[in-house]
Amino acid sequence: MAAAAVMVLLGFWQLDRYHQRASINERISAGATATPVPLPEIVGKPTQGPGSVGPAPPGDIEWTRVRVTGHYDPTREILVRGRTVDGRVGFEVITPLVLSDGTAVLVDRGWVPPAPGGALAAPAVPPAPTGDTTVVGRLRPPESRGGVPQEVNGRSEIRRITPAAIAPTLPYPIFDTYVTADEPPAGLTAVRPAKENALQNAGYVLQWWLFAALAVFGFAYLARREARGPASGDLLADEDGEKGEADGADGDGDGDGVNSGGVPHRAPR
Asked: For residues 190 and 179, is the Cβ–Cβ distance under 8 A?
């Protein structure tokens, strides 16, 4: 029964994961046609000085479609290495977009393939637009365990996009989120949202609860069988066995005066 209880709990855990993933998929679908919302209406602005980040974004903002206007700062551009798009590994291009109030948000302008010369060669990155630019895209939460950008052959690179780790290298405060552009310029490939496999978790829910039901049924069957005692057929078999043993014992006693050929022994005179 303890095993069944654990299986039921595992089923509820997978059910919770199903609802989480289904919610993400709903936001991805809704964002495809939703009217973009101004960024500051969803994520709190940074209020500290240069090199700081704003408040943490709400937990349900991922993939929300937003709109933000400012000018790019190409001198602080960062390449995010080891990013896969359409089965190919390359770089995502992160460029700060500075708003009119002096704050900034990191914009993922798109993906570029690696240079033909290998990982140490600089990829061909289209320049960011100049002047005021309005970016429409999807909000993304900070990635975990990100580090400070490192210089690699004259360009800044990181492995994960973590605004709190990037902020100290910038001369302005930034939002604690980043935006993936819906329509990157020529030469860049859009980083499209990938839906979660919620049906897999739904299958795990059914699997764990089916196992729990089988465990309870098996326990009940064995307990009922134990309470009823041995079946009548088993009792008859036991009685036949005992009778056979008794007959065998009687046969041994009757054969004391008979030799192996069936002839009685004669007592010596």
From this structure: no
- As a whole number, the mean pLDDT across the chain is 81
CA–CA distance, 151 with 144 (Å, rounded to integer): 21
Is the CA virtual torsion 47, 51, 56, 62 positive or negative? positive
Sequence spans of domains, the chain = 1-30+197-250, 34-196
The residue ranges of DSSP E strands in 6-149, in sequence order, are 37-38, 65-72, 78-85, 88-98, 104-112, 132-140
Going by C-beta distance under 8 Å and a sequence separation of 6 or more, which residues neighbour residue 58?
A: 42, 43
Q: Which helix (H) or strand (E) holds 157?
A: strand 155-158
Q: What distance in Å separates the CA atoms of residue 89 and residue 111, rounded to the nearest whole number?
A: 9
Q: What is the pTM of this model?
A: 0.67
Q: What is the pLDDT of residues 43-55, one digit of tens each?
A: 999 999 999 999 9
Indicate if the alpha-carbon torsion angle 256, 259, 263, 266 is positive or negative: negative
